[in-house]
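Hi F.,

I've been meaning to write this up properly since the lab meeting, where we talked about keeping a consistent format for the predictions we share between groups. The idea is simple: the sequence comes first, exactly as it goes in, then the structure tokens exactly as they come out, then a line or two of notes. No screenshots and no reformatting. I'm using this chain as the first example so we have something concrete to point to.
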Amino acid sequence: MRRFSFLAALLAAAASSFAQPAPAPPKAARPAIAPERLTRLTQFLDRYVNENRIPGAVALVLRDGKPVYEQSFGWADREAGRKMTGDTLFRIASQTKAITSTAVMILVEEGKIGITEPVSHFIPSFDKTTVAVKDDNGIKFVPAKRRITIHDLLTHTAGISYGTEPYIAAMYEAKGLGPAAGNGWYTADKDEPVCETMERLGTLPFVAQPGEAFVYGYNTDILGCVVEKASGMKLADFVRTRITQPLGLKDTRFYIPMEERNRLAAVYASDHGAYARAPEGSKGQGHYVIGPRKSFAGGAGLTSTAHDYARFLEMIRNGGALDGVRILGPRAVKLMTTNQSGALHSKDGLGFGYGFETVDRYGASGMAAVGAFGWGGAYGTTYQVDPQSHLVVVFMMQLMPNATDVQPKFMTSVYQALVN
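Output, unedited:
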């Protein structure tokens, strides 16, 4: 009996040890922000404004969702005498892509879009696409090896450019795309829904085979049409009702109401070491206030503020939810913010997920930690989310073309303020 009692006690002790929760792994050290080092950021941006390299900017840094740095510099509209302020509106161009990609992932979670689903299920002209191939005899057009998928579009690996390459530019221009669309990506002046434009795009030749190269182009504009087809709503309505309105983003819209036009920053262009006001039209000020308001460009059409966009990014950093409002599940966010394109985007430590460029090696993007992600816009806006550092960093200006190095130096100025 004693032996059985001893065995029972031994088994009970073993069971008790298994029932105990494992000790939590030690948390990674959270770098502190040195306020005195943040003054370097102010000094840097003041210098670029005072030396007339940039007209003005808004800089916003969130730490665990709270502003730790927030400053406005220079002019929103120099000729009108309007200074930059925290509520200045900006054309965010390709920063629209992250929001449209979020819209796609919402519909993926609902089973209305499949990640590997062919785009032709939503846009018939993409059923049989062609690729322009250059060889010693000139240009020839060959069939695509397979149909383009949603994954290809999310990662910019569909082979679709903006149609400005010399060997296809005339064909794109004849269809109202490429050179006929400003710098290729601009559709704010189009008097037609985006799906009509994308249907025509499907009839044009692309520049690489699906899945074989990273080619930056109309991919997310096509996805904007897919959102419309899958949801039965205009892209602007879907973005408003499913993303911006629930998050309280009142200033993130495709077009600006006439009564708020004086909040929109003017576009300037780098000019021999200084800057000059950009012209009206598709390569300058654009039609974001006065325009047909029919084309909702998922790749480059939104306007926003630094505060709004930082709040959207904080939702992503927080795994798809913010202040009790869930937009996406954590697994979908993980897909978006990890490299889904292998070495096609870069062989030197950068990847591309579903809407974001990812940092896979320390040093590949300045001082950003591995796991950081971000992108930017043609008008000079840029951002970085660094979960390891608990940071959301947003920089807004309107300079196109931009011949300065302000964005990478701005990011370095933020990171140098992190100390242990």
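Notes:
The chain has two domains: 32-94+238-419, 101-231.
The two ends are 61 Å apart (CA to CA).

If this format works for you, I'll send the rest the same way.

G.
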